[in-house]
Amino acid sequence: MILEADDAVNIVLDNIKPLGMERISIFESLNRVIGEEIISRRNLPPYDTSAMDGYAIKAEDTKNNGCTLKVKGVIAAGDNVSGLSINNGECYRIMTGAFLPMGADSVIQHELTDNGKETVNIGQEVKHGFCVRYKGEDLKTGDIINRIGERFSPYHIGRYISAGIFYTSVYRKPRIALISTGNEIADPSIQDKPDMIFDSNSQMASQFFTQLGADVSYIGVVEDSAEAILNTFKTLKNYDMIVTSAGISAGDFDYMNLIADELGIKWLFSRINQKPGQHMSFGFMGETPVFACPGNPVSAMFCNFYYVKPALQKMMGLKEYRNKPVSVILGADVIKKKGRVQFDRVKVVIENGKLKAYPFTTQDSHIIESLVSANAYAKFTNEMVGTVAQGTELDAYIFNAEQVFG
């Protein structure tokens, strides 16, 4: 049975579960997926704090459009203010980030005064709370921070440290075994095979999965023989996912299909009504998910992006794990021959505030340059047959967001 692409994605995701968790230092958490809610151990700020360089005052002293106040001293950021206080008619010079003395409820900036040292003249009324950051305004002791399923960014890490949290639970990194098959494929470490093709598929996939946050083991290139593939699979222990490249079509040497039963693989599907990547299979070897991707580089990387990536992200515990499309405007006519979903490589650019998608010159699935020059896959649906005109609105899946948005 041949599946539609969206149905295939749903089958994949319905059968993938998040992994377990481990406890790590917050200082080593960048890009890891948050696995627990935490409770703040601190107030931020810890006390009422000045937001500006100025004078800590009582606002009521200025209610008659100004006043003259006695300056009792200077408070710098980090000074201990216990025991310091003001009464009516008094103030302290205060620096940004310093704690307010008892009795002060507002701060007037230096530049709005005569900047006096012993007495200061204020020529306007000051509102209560002006230029004050209140105790616990950003975060209170006991506040619950629930970011489960989000990646630790530099901002998340800053939030946790400000809450006094230095260790936390994160989802474990998935362990992926990556295999290429084919007698025509050479491991990049072998330099003396001019008639063979270097295994760029696995190297692209390895970097892609590593960038997503997985621990990837490159098993290597396996020759097109049942014995070699069986022996390789016997060595795959303690992996959370297996991803292969090539050997999945219907040819005499496509052993991933021919010996699936001997490998103990139960396929949930083996063909998808799409271009590129029609011959892609997904199933399980015991409890381990197996993605058998095509051998053409574009087809392999598209399947890694569209199917393996969301599965991997769900396994990692991300709450937003599906690929999300953006709406783009087609920048040139496209001829689509068949009634199947087609994902063309396009370059998305921002023009006059809108996303325009310009197709790469060829959509052949062996052209690696199309992956480098393009930055998204534009989705042409089944019913689009014939000329799809420039200006048509399409969904696109961006795989190089930096190239689009900077």
* Number of spatially distinct domains: 4
Structural class: alpha/beta
Q: What's the CATH H-level superfamily name of the largest domain?
A: MoaB/Mog-like domain
Mean pLDDT: 94
CATH class of the largest domain: Alpha Beta
Query: How many whole angstroms does the radius of gyration measure?
Result: 31 Å
Number of strands: 27
Morphology call:
elongated
Described by strand count, sense and barrel closure, the largest sheet is:
6 strands, mixed
The CATH architecture term of the largest domain is: 3-Layer(aba) Sandwich
Strand order of the largest sheet: 15-12-16-20-19-17
Helix content: 10-25%
- How far apart the termini lie comes to 42 Å
Beta percentage is 25-35%
Map the helices and strands.
Layout (H helix, E strand, L loop, with lengths): L4 H10 L6 E5 L12 E2 L9 E2 L3 E4 L9 E9 L14 E5 L11 E4 L9 E4 L9 E2 L10 E2 L8 H9 L4 E5 L3 E7 L3 E2 L10 E2 L1 H13 L2 E8 L3 H9 L6 E5 L9 H4 L1 H4 L1 E5 L4 E2 L5 E5 L2 E6 L3 H19 L10 E5 L3 E3 L4 E11 L2 E6 L9 H5 L2 E5 L5 E3 L4 E6 L2 H5 L1
Parallel strand pairs: 5-6, 12-15, 12-16, 13-14, 16-20, 18-23, 21-24
Antiparallel strand pairs: 1-11, 2-10, 3-9, 4-6, 4-7, 5-8, 17-19, 19-20, 21-27, 22-26, 23-24, 23-25, 25-27
Helix pairs in contact: 1-7, 3-7
